[in-house]
Design brief:
Chain lengths: ~350, ~270, ~230
């Protein structure tokens, strides 16, 4: 069980992360610059947080109150960067050797390297330099090196961000297989929701340096808790909402009031494919002027809010300039609660 | 852009006017005299400059102190100077057309006729750092084991030439060179500094330097006849813009006030005609 | 012809370059670990000799190692060594004057390294020493070599501080630079010209070597993965 509670101020940015993870692959999902990489570095021990607590399976790595700090060399963490960080002056074999535990007996080293190379299909590449490898081969070497000392915590920093799309899928399969066999906690930093859905069991959304409580991926994808989570989950329409006493909620961006039984509502979200065009008004509808109609979607603007875009299902019958109601299927409409993040928790 | 051009033009005009005024005015107008003098005259001439302020307050004296050889080269290369005072006849001869072709092989003509005379004489002495325990008491000791390093001026420095004369006279010059005991300085003040800091065991300088130097002790005077007399010739240079002011200053140098300053420091003043 | 000045200059330059290399990479690496405010101050002090006139450096040196100073007299009494007026006195002067060149070049080379290498290496349990000598240095090779060549050239051509600290003893402390000066003062233009040409030749060789190393460095960077 990984427990993390850290705070760090740097370059005008305030990082406040709080989450825990078991033996699973958990996504750290957020936009660029949200503080994801800094979190990984703090977990690895390469950077020291200002305040907080980090522990894995009871081993305390960082405790600012008791002045405990375990250096990165002793944490046993596997770190995989976007650009692999393979040492350019060393061969593949030498790079892998670096990844082995310091206390591995000499006679076992060669065998360990051999096993790694077989497992990751690197046979025959032992004497090549990283510059002589293809992108896929480099990634495999980086993953192999990362896992060489059987770390208890695996930190992956957007491992596919630098790859071409066609290569990505293939390597993703390989990584998925590796993660399935991995007996430990893996944190997967990304800004891509597809990867999150395919590779991870739970997701921790990060926004502006603050973490939201981790939730299972399925829950996040279908029932996001906050506006930020909804945007990251790919909801094309996300807006603020305010509860009204009469069992309705007012959505300023759409200039409508929709029925809402839940209290404590802060926003509303619905997907493009769950919004259709209709001639008649319904329960969850908003009158819009069609801006653009393509094969993928219809882009419209609420008549009373011409500055807002609403995205709905493609509909060839209605053309730009015409008016129609954009209606959302009631069961697909998601009411979002107030943003609950580690930052706001602290303030309360 | 136009403003810049205007400023530059007016500045140039002002400078030009100044130059013209300076040339045309009698010596009552503010005058600057540039005096190139041997390094050994630093203290003496600095004191005399103070005195001269009361005598001719409109005259500003600017000194360039260095080895006579360096100054001679600078004059040959076109340096603007009104007066030259050398620590040796050689350097002045090479600039004086009236010295004859054998002493002035390049036939250079920088000295204003009729203004050259011998201003001072000096004595060459051997000095050691204050508190030296090496027991050096004479020029002969330099050739022994008592001395591992001696500082001399190089052959371009008059006191360096005199030192060479002295050691040749004593028959030890070649030996000193063979033993690599000599470090050659570029002027007499450098030699003095090296002895003061005990970087060398001893050095050869003028008595005038020894008297003004701190942290050094004079242990011996050059043996009689071991070197050519140390004469300091002075002259006004051709191409001076202040001929009268320069001549006036040289006359002042030959007066009693200056004689006292010179002798206090250790120079000898010859009989004036 | 007396070749001592050349041999002495080269000897002094080689020794001080070796010293400068070690000091330079140590300083360049160490400075990254200092807090920001201290970093700036140290950087200024370490770069100072680059901007100071060599005579200023020579003056400070004399006031520090002359036989009558605290340090100079201590060494003289304890070991019988005089720190000035010897051939190795030049090493003090050239090391100080040329140090900033190596330091700045090394620092620039280190800063261009990807910080992820160090992070990965640390998590893999590699010691700081291993990371420095086996990962950082080898990947800066071209830049460091350029720094070495630059420092060597500067040390070889040093005059101002050297002449103040070593004096001029033919056959013992004379360097190419001080010899040329003395020959000029003595009016021996013919020999002075000869030395000038020799020095020009060496300088050109050094500069060509430096250009070669820089090209290699550029090629290496272009070929490496990033």
């Amino acid at each position: 069980m990984l427990e993390v509670r850290i705070e760090k101020r740097y370059a005008g940015f305030h990082l406040q992360m709080e989450f825990s993870a078991g033996r699973e692959t958990m996504a750290i999902l957020g936009a660029s610059g949200a503080g994801k990489t800094m979190t990984l570095r703090c977990l690895a021990g390469v950077i020291r947080p200002d305040r907080g607590y980090i522990a894995l399976d009871g081993h305390v790595w960082f405790d600012s109150e008791r002045r405990v700090f375990v250096p990165p060399q002793e944490r046993g963490v596997g770190l995989l960067f976007q650009n692999y960080a393979l040492f350019p002056n060393m061969t593949v074999r030498q790079n892998l050797l670096c990844g082995l535990r310091r206390d591995t007996p000499r006679n076992q080293r060669d065998e360990a390297i051999q096993q790694l190379m077989e497992r990751f299909c690197l046979n025959g590449l032992g004497d090549r330099l990283p510059s002589q490898l293809s992108g896929g081969q480099q990634q495999r070497v980086a993953v192999a090196r990362c896992l060489a000392r059987k770390p208890k915590l695996l930190l992956l920093d957007e491992p596919f961000a630098a790859l071409d799309v066609h290569l990505r899928w293939q390597l993703e399969q390989e990584l998925a297989a590796t993660l399935e066999n991995y007996d430990g906690t893996a944190l997967y930093v990304t800004h891509d929701r597809e990867e999150t859905c395919r590779l991870c069991q739970r997701v921790c959304v990060v926004q502006g340096g603050c973490s939201h409580p981790p939730v299972p991926v399925v829950e996040w994808y279908h029932q996001p808790a906050s506006r930020c989570a909804a945007q990251l989950a790919g909801f094309e329409n996300v807006a603020e909402a305010v509860c009204l006493p009469s069992g309705r909620a007012h959505i300023p961006d759409l200039a409508v009031d929709w029925p809402c039984e839940q209290a404590d509502v802060a926003g509303v979200a619905f997907r493009l494919e769950d919004a259709a065009l209709a001639a008649q008004a319904q329960d969850f509808a908003v009158l819009c002027r069609i801006i653009r109609s393509t094969e993928q979607e219809t882009v419209a603007s609420p008549v009373q809010r011409p500055d807002i875009y609403v995205r709905a299902r493609p509909d060839g019958r209605i053309h730009a300039g015409e008016h129609a109601y954009v209606c959302v299927q009631p069961e697909k409409l998601i009411w979002l609660r107030r943003e609950v993040s580690s930052c706001s928790l602290r303030q309360s | 852009m136009k403003k810049l051009v205007a400023v530059i033009l007016s500045l140039t005009l002002m400078l030009g006017c100044n130059a013209v005024l300076a040339e045309a005015a009698p010596s009552a107008a503010p005058t600057e005299l540039v005096v190139f003098a041997a390094a050994s005259m630093t203290e003496a001439l600095t004191q005399i400059a103070e005195l001269y302020k009361t005598v001719a307050p409109n005259v500003t004296l600017t000194f360039n102190f260095d080895s006579s050889g360096t100054l001679q080269t600078q004059i040959e290369e076109g340096a603007q100077a009104d007066i030259f005072i050398s620590a040796g006849q050689k350097q002045m001869n090479e600039l004086d057309i009236s010295a004859g072709a054998d002493k002035n092989p390049k036939n250079q003509d920088f000295v204003l006729e009729g203004t050259r005379f011998d201003l001072l004489t000096n004595t060459v002495v051997l000095i050691v750092p204050e508190g030296s325990t090496k027991g050096i008491t004479s020029f002969d000791d330099v050739a022994t084991d008592k001395v591992s390093l001696i500082a001399l001026g190089n052959s371009d420095v008059p006191v360096g030439q005199y030192a060479q004369d002295i050691f040749t006279y004593l028959g030890v010059w070649d030996q000193l060179n063979a033993d690599q005991k000599i470090t050659f300085g570029t002027n007499v003040k450098e030699v003095l500094a090296q002895v003061e800091s005990a970087a060398v065991d001893c050095g050869v300088v003028y008595i005038s330097d020894a008297v003004t130097g701190k942290g050094i002790t004079v242990v011996a005077t050059a043996p009689e006849g071991s070197h050519k007399p140390v004469n300091y010739p002075a002259a006004v240079l051709k191409g001076t813009a202040n001929e009268q002011a320069a001549k006036d200053f040289l006359t002042f140098l030959q007066g009693d006030e200056c004689a006292k300053v010179f002798t206090d420091i250790g120079f000898q003043v010859p009989e004036r005609k | 012809m007396d070749w001592f000045p050349l041999l002495n200059s080269v000897r002094v330059a080689l020794i001080s370059t070796a010293l400068i290399f070690l000091l330079g990479i140590w300083a360049a690496n160490g400075i990254t670990r200092l807090p920001a405010w201290l970093k700036g101050a140290f950087d200024t002090v370490l770069t100072l000799p680059l901007v100071l006139p060599p005579t200023v450096v020579g003056f400070f040196l004399l006031k520090t190692i002359s036989p009558k100073t605290a340090l100079g007299s201590f060494v003289l009494n304890a070991f019988g060594w005089k720190l000035t007026m010897t051939w190795f006195s030049a090493i003090f002067a050239t090391t100080i004057v040329a140090f900033p060149l190596m330091y700045r070049t090394a620092r620039g080379a280190f800063e261009q390294l990807s910080p992820e290498w160090e992070a990965c290496a640390e998590t893999m349990g590699l010691s700081k020493r291993f990371i420095f000598w086996r990962i950082k240095l080898p990947n800066c090779r071209a830049g460091l070599l350029a720094g070495v060549v630059l420092s060597f050239a500067r040390a070889l051509g040093e005059y101002g501080a050297t002449s103040m600290v070593t004096g001029y003893i033919p056959g013992k402390t004379a360097t190419v630079a001080t010899t040329v000066y003395q020959l000029w003062r003595e009016g021996n233009d013919a020999l002075a010209y000869r030395w000038v040409l020799i020095d020009l030749g060496i300088s050109m060789v050094v500069l060509i070597a430096m250009n070669l190393f820089e090209k290699q460095g550029g090629a290496a960077r272009a070929g490496s993965t990033d």
